[in-house]
């Protein structure tokens, strides 16, 4: 069974015409059932306010939780932050943290939301409100559940928020493999950044991943991997540029699962980006990625 963390509160209304498909979080669950993937759903709790404030500016946390985010920050995020979005912003880090706790005990789990890697200390950005990867990593380390965490970001966009929030820590290694010419225009500095050219394609992408990931694992020696499994490197993604095929994306996540298993590492994934008008196609793309990760780790056939 694939352990999937999902909450009905993940589905919140988006602004009409927004590229950010809020309802894909519900459609992912439909796509899981449609594909016949054996899975068990676990409902996360909202991340407690104190842990959000440990990573984000308390004033910004208050703006989100009270649904009074200033217009300039809402523009930077890309959608209005009403009460339903505020709840989802708390649930998503709770889901990533809960998936990581499950993975530490059982090997692998996935959060069917999250991957909000652009959120910074005092503002959201790029369709991200709170940075669930950074918040989850901080809490896991602070509570002693993990000692060293590798945040592996395979979204087509650089994980600039995660890099900035984790920059001063020696117990977190941030590896971002992204399209160099894509958003954000001004990149942050991860522990390791791999900026790829437009149109990289399956073969070259997988060759680079096979070179950098084992070296990062061996060099940093984490005891947990948090994976940002964005599907926006896909060739049909509205915001992607790396030209990966369905098979290439599946091979990516299968390889990550294989490497985690080979190194004896628990791994928890977050959904990450995926953009376009056909939202069910996006949901199916996410499900294929989740399935491939489980296959690589050996819990799915």
Topology of this protein?
Layout: E1 2-5, H1 24-35, E2 39-42, H2 49-55, H3 58-65, H4 71-77, H5 83-106, E3 108-111, H6 132-142, E4 149-153, H7 160-165, E5 172-179, E6 192-196, H8 201-220, E7 224-228, H9 246-262, E8 267-270, H10 279-297
Parallel strand pairs: 1-2, 1-3, 3-8, 4-5, 4-7, 5-6, 7-8
Helix pairs in contact: 1-10, 2-6, 5-6, 8-9, 9-10
Largest sheet: spatial strand order: 2-1-3-8-7-4-5-6
Per DSSP E runs of 2 or more residues, the count of β-strands stands at 8
**How large, in whole angstroms, is the Cα Rg?**
17 Å
Order of helices and strands: EHEHHHHEHEHEEHEHEH
Mean pLDDT: 96
The parts where pLDDT drops under 50 for at least 5 residues are: none
> What is the end-to-end distance?
10 Å
Tell the overall outline.
Answer: globular
Which structural class do you get from the secondary structure elements? Answer: alpha/beta
Number of continuous helical runs: 10
Helix content bin: 40-55%
Largest sheet: 8 strands, parallel
How much strand? 5-15%
Would you kindly provide a brief summary of this structure?
Helix content is 44%, strand content 13%. By secondary structure, it is α/β, with parallel strands linked by helices.
Written description of the protein model:
- Helix 5 (83-106) crosses helix 6 and helix 9 (246-262) runs parallel beside helix 10 (279-297).
- An 8-stranded parallel beta sheet has the order 2-1-3-8-7-4-5-6, with helices on both faces.
- Helix content is 44%, strand content 13%.
- The mean pLDDT is 96.
- Helix 9 links the parallel strand 7 (224-228) and strand 8.
- It is of the alpha/beta class and 301 residues long.
- It contains 10 helices and 8 strands.
